Amino acid sequence: MQKNYYILFHNTRVNSPLSSYDKRKSRQSFDRAAHRYDKSAALQQQVAAKLIALQSKEGVQSVLDIGCGTGQVTAAMCVDYPQANIVALDFAERMLLETEKRLSVINKSATLVCADAECLPFVDESFDLIISSLMLQWSNDLTQNLTHIHRCLMGKGQLAFSTFTEGTLKEVKASWKSVDGLVHTSDFMGVDTLKQSVEAAGFRNVQIHQETIVSLYPKVREVLMDMKRIGASNAHSDRSKGLTGKQRFAAFESAYEIFKQADMNYPCTWELAYVFGEK
């Protein structure tokens, strides 16, 4: 795999209404999960497919896929825009290796860049479409990150991304809250705040489509194991660094019982936003 840039990281705590993320911890988690990601990432695949279907397909000559993961969106961009210059960026090198494998199966190629999405290593006005599925929620400063994305877009360029919003993991959060006051899950913006961030970064004609997806599990521990298998572990900078004790985890499972459905499954709620804007 030919890398075009060195790995760049931005791991500074910021003045944000949400807690900041430990980028190195997150990168390690996604690197470890890369080889098994597609087997467990049904939700991510569903959301990416909808984002691909919703975004515009006219006049695209250059595309940047931010947080490409195993390359589902990148592969779709290669198919939809066969004459375009496609760039796939991820901060986990093993994810890029999986993207390369996916593209080789369909006899397509893209420029692979290993870098932090908050340090985009591109000159101004490099792309006329920037797309990202379920990655930008990990930004330590979303407005600043979107401002850099705006800079990289050509005049009248398009932004399309999906992200989690407030209400995501509400069952997990409520259950842990009844056990202790520690940070166990990520925080996500409300839709109004999200729109304000996109507009503050300079985007016009911002449109947001909302969706709620409820995943069902036969056991409570499967909820957390599914998150771990795709690398989406808790990477808050202020997370507890110790192991979750058996007693506390048992208390968490007990608290989760109030969400148990009539079919004996346990729900996990994901609130989604599909965001589109113009430069």
UniProtKB/TrEMBL annotation:
What family does the Swiss-Prot or TrEMBL record give for this protein?
Belongs to the methyltransferase superfamily.
Species of provenance: Leucothrix arctica
Enzyme Commission no: 2.1.1.197
Q: What task does this protein carry out?
A: Converts the free carboxyl group of a malonyl-thioester to its methyl ester by transfer of a methyl group from S-adenosyl-L-methionine (SAM). It allows to synthesize pimeloyl-ACP via the fatty acid synthetic pathway.
Q: Name one GO molecular function term.
A: S-adenosylmethionine-dependent methyltransferase activity
Keywords, A to Z?
A: Biotin biosynthesis, Methyltransferase, S-adenosyl-L-methionine, Transferase
Q: What is this protein called?
A: Malonyl-[acyl-carrier protein] O-methyltransferase
Reaction equations catalysed: malonyl-[ACP] + S-adenosyl-L-methionine = malonyl-[ACP] methyl ester + S-adenosyl-L-homocysteine
Top-level taxon of the source organism: Bacteria
Pathway(s) the chain acts in? Cofactor biosynthesis; biotin biosynthesis
The answer to keyword ATP-binding applying to this record is no
Q: Which InterPro entries match?
A: BioC, Malonyl-ACP_OMT, Methyltransf_11, SAM-dependent_MTases_sf
Example of a GO biological process term: biotin biosynthetic process
Give all residue intervals belonging to the Methyltransferase type domain: 64-161
Class in the EC hierarchy, top level:
transferase
